[in-house]
Amino acid sequence: MRHLLSTTELSREAAIELLDISEDMAAVADRENKKLPALRGKTVVNLFFEDSTRTRISFEAAAKRLSADVINFSAKGSSVSKGESLKDTAQTLSAMGADAVVIRHGASGAPAVLAASGWIDAGIINAGDGTHEHPTQALLDAFTMRRRIHGAGSRGKGLDGVSVTIVGDIVHSRVARSNVWLLKTLGAHVRLVAPATLLPVAVDSWPVTIDYDLDHALAESTPDVIMMLRIQQERMNDAFFPNPREYANVWGLSTARWAKLPATSLVMHPGPMNRGLEISSAAADSPQSTVLEQVANGVSVRMATLYTVLTSTREVSA
Ligand code: NCD
User: Ligand 1 centroid to 173 CA: how many Å?
Assistant: First the structure.
């Protein structure tokens, strides 16, 4: 795997292999010495044009556990036009000898531009681009589901027949997009629940079932996994729902809705959470919530991703 730009490019075999390597990496996390020498001498650049806490430190921890050198480049606030600044930055990083660039950018497609540009000969890992994709988040979500459903240490398995209901701000969510494609590849059934204003126009062509009402969706079938998404106020320049109270009442995983779920239904959220809006504290802090497991598993999945990208054979550029 030369780059990781989108979950659409992962075959079932490639996805399962990444999850299996993540299991190997998780085993390292349980040891007293968490460091592996696998990427010694390699340089990983975290190039973040958008705010992030958990994703950036997760990639940083992952790279360090594999003994790579890490450079954190927070490019937010640059006044240069986007295409130009990306090119200049990429050439600078190339001159510094970056072997992998983990990029988060507000523009959908920025990582793909970088990978195709020829400005830099590094492995490119998409850490979230606009509303497009966030592949390592979907991989860590799938890893978390597989561990809870099939047990830690299970290998070779997908998520066949697992029902996953994703609720909330789908239109702005790169997490939802990456999850829809990966979950389909792994054999899960996906249902999206959101007000019509928070569903993308193209959703009709996605491999999912749609519901506009959370109570209706939960009454119709009990999901194995319910994944709540953050309301992304920073991407909203319009009124997408009447007001926060109404949203919480109709689409939030309130304490009452959560209490009706069986204890076997997993409650997931990629973070950061708006407690009291899309998820109640009772649901977020319950034993069936995987919120903190997702964070811990993120390091293992990003170790597996960096390892796979940095050990894949490169074309030698002329
Ligand atoms: C997600 C993101 O940035 O897309 N968060 C994350 O990576 N932990 C989801 C979000 O911001 O709501």
Answer: 8
